[in-house]
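Example pasted here:
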Amino acid sequence: MAHRATSIRADAEADRRQTGALPHARQEPLGNRMLSRIRADILSLKLAPGEVISERALQAGYGASRTPIRQALMQLIHEGLILRTTRGYAVAPFDLEELDESFEYRELIEGEAIRLACARAMPGDLDAIQETIDRGLTEFTPESWFEIGLDVHVRLAELSRNRFLRDAVQDVIARTMRVRWLVANTVEGREAAHRDHSEIVRLVRDRNADAAAEALRHHGREVRRQVYDAIDGTRRFLGARSFAGGRRDDPGEHHDSGRTDR
């Protein structure tokens, strides 16, 4: 116990030295900053899917002590970006079967959430979401894009005023953000996301539930198609360990040629 207490105090002191601040100074916790940095490196593939990592290597690479690194790893496990292994940890591979399931689940729950949002959203809420959407064209780093991309979909679901739908959308969107980064790191991808999100907000503002749900479904299926095209393009340099599972044959995916206005 004495050794453990000494270790904890040493970690805390190391963190204070890294921040250059007094113990009670107000600032973003070091664990949160480590989370942002490691997540950004996973999203941008600097930490490749399937790559084995250790706490010690992360401590050295990011200049942090064990406590904030471990806090970051626990959150990344929750987000599905890191896996526990017998050797420590590994960056989660692209699980193609899980992706299929995630996109299917997302289509179901987001569709119901957006219908409720059409009945319950307030104009001020939609104005704030549109401002966030517009930021996506000007703020572009892996971490800022993660926050903006996740925020838009979660805040739209939040307008349903149903906490279970909001939490479900937040979880499934977080689990697909890394593969969506493969699309969003192009100007065309960001412009398409801005156009689609803005149209969805407009339809919610008009309280057109059928059209909003259809626009969201079309957006999700187009993102899905772009994601798999991008994944196919990464195979030649990522290697076999970066992929797990296999795609199921989805006959409906190839026949969604456009949105049908209702």
About this structure: The CA atoms of residues 23 and 38 lie 24 Å apart.
